[in-house]
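Now for one protein, fold included:
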Amino acid sequence: MVIKVLLVDDEPLVRAGLRAVLEAQPDIEVVGEAADGAAVIPLVRSLRPDVVAMDVRMPLMDGIEATRAVLRTVGSPPKILVVTTFENDEYVYGALRAGADGFLLKRARPAEIVHAVRLVVEGDSLLFPAAVRDLAASYGRDRPANEAHEALVRAHLTDREEDVLRLVARGLSNAEIAARLVVGTETVKSHVSSVLAKLGARDRTQAVIAAYESGFVSPS
């Protein structure tokens, strides 16, 4: 399968660099570019990318608002990777809470960029789990923890689903969780899907943020 990527960044050099890295891979194709988040929705609808690599800070519509807009208005939306200069950025955390699937540093090495795109498409692992944990420690505590806790209580996770959520929050892949719990990978996939459905989470990233903000998992 060829992964189709849309690049959204107001810096032409950043877009050119990402395009050069990604198009060097036989399984990745850059299908389009935009200079601002305001242009994302029509391009997503016409190009149907699998992944949108989107700058978190742009002049007209930033990556947070663009992420919300895509997820709110596009059926079967693409995975969204926000592109940022600094990982410990409240804007990045805001984009993840809005539904972005992960983030990518502008200074990342080519292999890391390619890995990030492939990983969010596969959806079996959390991208940069330590950084997500640090973001939750820095900014999650400012959220209404009681609201997040009540949502987790209403989810009525089983004991095994709680075990799976803890391991997902630590960044383990489905295969690693299966080995840890001594069950099959398909069983883990089923548990992860159930956790996401019960939490109303789009993907692993949103489930992990919910786990941290509710106090179910400690960032420390």
